[in-house]
Write a structure and sequence with these properties.
- There is one protein chain.
- The chain has about 210 residues and is an alpha+beta fold.
- The protein has helices at about 5-50, 120-135, 195-210; strands at about 55-65, 65-75, 75-80, 85-90, 110-115, 140-145, 150-160, 160-170, 180-185, 210.
- The strands form two sheets. It has a seven-stranded antiparallel β-sheet, with helices on one face. Strands 1-2-10 form a three-stranded antiparallel β-sheet, covered by helices on one side.
Length: about 210
């Protein structure tokens, strides 16, 4: 073997060794990322299965279509920015919930009072179906209210989130113009003790909501 061949073989060994080292580093990094994600999922599930007790409710006042609205909401919820058409919105933010940086985003657990549906097309479709048929199909939960402040309530999956909402009684014709009280939370919360807590807190908001029509 000539000198030139020895140099080429040596260079090839260096390249192959470098490539192997890079591949090992990449594999180790992938394993670390996957392990980190798994640990966060386990931490998130444990956190969702062991939520703190709900803090006592506080009174809230706002306006809906120019009418005074009042309701009670657990102090676990703090006022946030809300969505399109929100007149007031609260995110779930209990003192002892802790922070992860973050596969699950607690800012996406919200209670919102909507003056119209806004960009929740799924809700508008359910309202349209209810107006046409007096019921809503293909949802997880539906309850009709023959009288009172609400027309009906629904619990349904929308993409990666759960929507649980009450539609306020109204004589408007466009399904997008109906006012809605909405609980919005990630699908991963479903079936956990945190979901039970959220549903209980939200139902208390709905039960306590009063409107003083001008």
């Amino acid at each position: 073997m000539g000198l030139f061949d020895k140099i080429l073989n040596g260079a090839k060994e260096v390249i192959d060794g470098t490539k192997t080292a890079i591949e090992k580093i990449e594999n180790d990094m992938d394993q670390d990322v996957n392990q980190y994600a798994d640990n966060k999922k386990l931490a998130g599930k444990e956190r969702y299965d062991n939520p703190p007790e709900a803090l006592p409710p506080v009174s809230v006042q706002t306006y809906l279509n120019g009418n005074n609205v009042q309701f009670m909401i657990s102090d676990d919820f703090t006022k946030g920015e809300g969505y399109m058409n929100s007149v007031i919105s609260f995110k779930y933010n209990p003192e002892h919930f802790g922070v992860l940086d973050d596969i699950y985003d607690e800012e996406n657990i919200t209670i919102s009072l909507q003056e119209g549906v806004g960009d929740f097309d799924e809700i508008a479709e359910c309202i349209e179906e209810y107006i046409s048929n007096g019921s809503v199909s293909d949802v997880e939960q539906f309850e009709d209210y023959p009288d009172g402040k609400y027309m009906f309530k629904v619990k349904m999956l929308a993409s990666d989130y759960e929507l649980y909402y009450y539609v306020l009684r109204s004589d408007v014709e466009d399904s997008y113009d109906h006012d809605v009280l909405l609980l919005f939370y990630p699908y991963e919360v479903k079936g956990t003790n945190l979901e039970k807590k959220l549903l209980s807190c939200f139902d208390e908001v709905a039960k306590s909501l009063t409107i003083q029509f001008n």
